[in-house]
């Protein structure tokens, strides 16, 4: 009889690396988040990227080559037999995503160094397209119209950004929307893996300076102006592939990876455009980590809001092991009856989403001042959806939690006020 493997967590890194201080990121209802901040006020604050178990995934800046500092601990999942046999490493979803974050941060830091900035120029893109009323100006204008139509609040916030940054964000938004429409749009039933393969090849052409249409051209032009890497875009397409073949997630590790693919990637795409405040003391890595956290929080909120809708399509985007721990099954989801077990389960899921929102808040303050408003608006409005789920007595089977127009309007000045706050890294450094 084969021995059952047990999953354990191994702390990698220097033995001298500090652990979580008492009262700093202390365990809360089983969730732990270790934020290793300096004891002395003059020291530079060290940021972390939190894992799904809320253990530390990295502290401080990576080395010059993009690797982690030797003093940075990283949690990694290992599979170990009860008999103590040699461990077989299994890279966790968080570690895979963390590696992408490190790569994106390193790319941004290279771009900020004048001596290296011109060593690798991005591919040139034709400045005019053979379009009906032609040109990149028309392409960007169309991207803005689409953003305004489908994301009115976010669009309003982008109007405070510089023209170049505003148009770039519109181009990224439109590409993401078009990608999402492949599996969630009106023609989703006809989409095949081969269609996604074609979409990925088209993405590669776009990054090589060969846009297929005017909307592609806007993004192709954008990547010549900002240090944007193709990896998050390819990862989002992988998320669409997942939707074609997967309707259950056995644990949060799997769900984490899915949330990164379909939403966390957006944050990684956007940071180079949003920009980091010139006076910020935060590392590029930490800002990317916060952008990732916001994407994860938004997607987890989407999942919790749409439980009933997804169930009617035969999909359950909830950790199967946590459902089982709560005494729930797929059948309970399909029946759609709110019980005490369901309320308890939902409270835990909402708590997790809110912790990601909290992690994201610190990073938003580190963005350029003119870029913060749309991000704050998105964060505040999405977080209110969680409040609405609670107000509906956790009935996300037959009631759709949404934020009313009045609350949206009220959130805008609050978001604007927060966009004026001093970067968190500076506040933390002040005496």
Automatic annotation (TrEMBL):
**Which positions make up the signal peptide?**
1-23
| Gene3D superfamilies per the UniProt record, alphabetical | Farnesyl Diphosphate Synthase (1.10.600.10)
The UniProt entry lists membrane topology as: Peripheral membrane protein
Major subcellular site: plastid
Q: Which Pfam families match?
A: SQS_PSY (PF00494)
| A GO molecular-function annotation | squalene synthase [NAD(P)H] activity
Instruction: Quote the catalytic activity from the record.
Output: 2 (2E,6E,10E)-geranylgeranyl diphosphate = 15-cis-phytoene + 2 diphosphate
Keyword tags: Carotenoid biosynthesis, Isoprene biosynthesis, Signal, Transferase, Transit peptide
Q: What is its EC number?
A: 2.5.1.32
InterPro entries associated with the record: Isoprenoid_synthase_dom_sf, Squ/phyt_synthse, Squalene/phytoene_synthase_CS, Trans_IPPS_bact-type, Trans_IPPS_HH
Listed GO CC annotations = chloroplast membrane; plastoglobule
Q: Where does this polypeptide localize?
A: Plastid, Chloroplast membrane; Plastid, Chloroplast, Plastoglobule
Query: What family does the database annotate?
Result: Belongs to the phytoene/squalene synthase family.
Q: Which PANTHER family match?
A: BIFUNCTIONAL LYCOPENE CYCLASE/PHYTOENE SYNTHASE
The name of this protein is 15-cis-phytoene synthase
Record organism? Triticum aestivum
